[in-house]
Amino acid sequence: MVDRRPVGFGRRDGEGSTRPGGQPDVPEGATRLDDESMARLLPVREARGHKGTFGKLLVIAGSLDYAGAALLVCRAAGRAGAGLVTLAVPESLQPLFAAKVVEATTMALPEDDVEEVDPEPALAKVLDHEHDAMVIGPGLRPSLATTDLLRLILTAPEEAAGPPAVLDAEALRTLASADDWWQSVTRPCVLTPHAGEFARLRAGSGHQPDEDGDLNADDAARVRAASAAAAEWGQVVILKGANTVIAAPDGSTAVAPFENPAMASGGTGDVLAGTVGALLAQGLAPFDAARLGVYLHGLAGETVRERLGDAGLLASDLPEAVPLARKRLAAIAERQRSGRRVGFGVRDEAPPAPSGSGDGPGTGPGDGPGDDAVPGGDAFPAASPGGSS
């Protein structure tokens, strides 16, 4: 006998859960992300929109040793709906990256040595480029020049500060080494640290590592630490890992319902950065872009896990699944707007039989099961997935 199991984004009730009903407990003070709430955050795609309508994202990422990080960010951003993506790299590396990115364009940053940006001319070029959001950090080469450029971008005077930015990888390491960095950053940011990067940032802010507790296995500790950090730094924080935590400076905190060991693979964080950056470019506020980006990323991981299992997922598998996750939420959003249910089921009221007809009640054309309901409910049930981002 073949074991017939349901196929889709979610996990069967009870799998990987810590309480009845298939969902782990939510730490106090946090809300759980789900299909219905995330569908409401999807940016509208106007029928007459064009590539400029759907956001311009500037990506400062990549180096000779970590070219893949930049490519993953750009591909994920395009798959998450950004209209235009531009990758900024040191001018000596532009030919390499231009040959690798297809849909994205490239921008050469001035250098004062091979693969070493010249910070002030590079800043001028960045500020002169038209964009709606930025992703900074994945795969950047650690150097004093890189640190200076990031500092200049993040601390530009408020009138020239520019649009919001996603900060990951080398950008986070730069912040961790700067005293009281949050007091001088002038643009809204979404920080995307994993537990190790988060611990370094907290240590750089004067906190002892043991103050925050176990940032890998203790979800309550993760929520408390992320919330405290977001409030202190005045920025949105995504604390990555199983049951990713998203915290806003105003105390709002959310937890994603994903525990997915397949996502423990190099480069998946770059895909998340590109996804969140694309949503920022499409006009979402930082906390909304962070929550929706984490959820789309987690659903994409569940899609790949259903196909491949708990191991073998490559980061390059994820961008292709992001638009499928978005399509799923778009269908739910459309149903929310119209108030209709989709699938098979019985209407609340059957129309009366035509006058003078010999047919009995419910036997006229169009009576009986309709095309837009399901037996017992919903054709797009809320996922109860289990995966990490």
Can you describe what's shown?
The chain is α/β, with parallel strands linked by helices and 389 residues long. It has a single domain, classed as UDP-N-acetylmuramoyl-L-alanine:D-glutamate ligase. Helix content is 34%, strand content 11%. The chain has 11 helices and 12 strands. The strands form 2 sheets. A 10-stranded mixed β-sheet has the order 1-12-11-10-9-8-7-2-3-4, sandwiched between helices. Helix 9 crosses helix 10. The protein is globular and about 55 Å long. The protein starts with 30 loop residues before the first strand and ends in a 51-residue tail after the last helix.
List keywords for this structure.
alpha/beta, UDP-N-acetylmuramoyl-L-alanine:D-glutamate ligase, ten-stranded mixed sheet, two-stranded antiparallel ribbon, 11 helices
How is this structure best summarized?
The chain has eleven helices and twelve strands. It is an alpha/beta fold.
Helices and strands, with pairings:
Elements: E1 31-32, H1 35-39, E2 56-60, H2 67-79, E3 84-90, H3 94-98, E4 105-109, E5 111-113, E6 116-117, H4 119-128, E7 133-136, H5 144-154, E8 165-167, H6 170-176, E9 189-191, H7 195-204, H8 219-233, E10 236-239, E11 245-247, E12 253-255, H9 268-281, H10 286-308, H11 318-338
Parallel strand pairs: 1-12, 2-3, 2-7, 3-4, 7-8, 8-9, 9-10
Antiparallel strand pairs: 5-6, 10-11, 11-12
Helix pairs in contact: 2-9, 2-11, 4-5, 6-7, 9-10, 10-11
